[in-house]
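Request: Not sure, any thoughts?
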Amino acid sequence: MADAKKTAEPLLMPTVDEDGTPFWTYAARGELRIQTCAEPTCGEPRFPPRPCCPHCQSFATRWQKTSGRGRIWSYVVPHPPLLPAYAAHAPYNAIVVELADAPRIRLVGNLVASPDAPLNSVDPARLRIGARVQVVFADLDGITVPRWILERP
């Protein structure tokens, strides 16, 4: 009879493609940078990263450092059934953060108590739309991912 014990599945990791590689490179340095149009008459930020500016169609790009501050624009606390790799972390949150210095840019992540804290380290009752957050970075299986902490815990 086969062993009934299952091995833990790894958490889902981001896909790193050619356009997004600089985002992850800067994250590994502890910097939150957003792709921005380098055309002098445009300068619009864009996320997710892509080769062409959706505003002016320029292929000129630069990576603008942000303050790493924002606010919770939306959130969800997933309920079962969950992906098997995340079931042990429930209840955890997934938040959408609107960046303070690029309000049209919204990033998805998790609100945690500290950079290396587990996904369920913040009580879901503490989640509030509009709460001010600050980016932190955590290394997960060799990829540095942005996470968020409350500015005023």
About this structure: Residues 15-65 form one domain. The longest helix spans residues 21-28. DSSP finds two helices and eight strands in the chain.
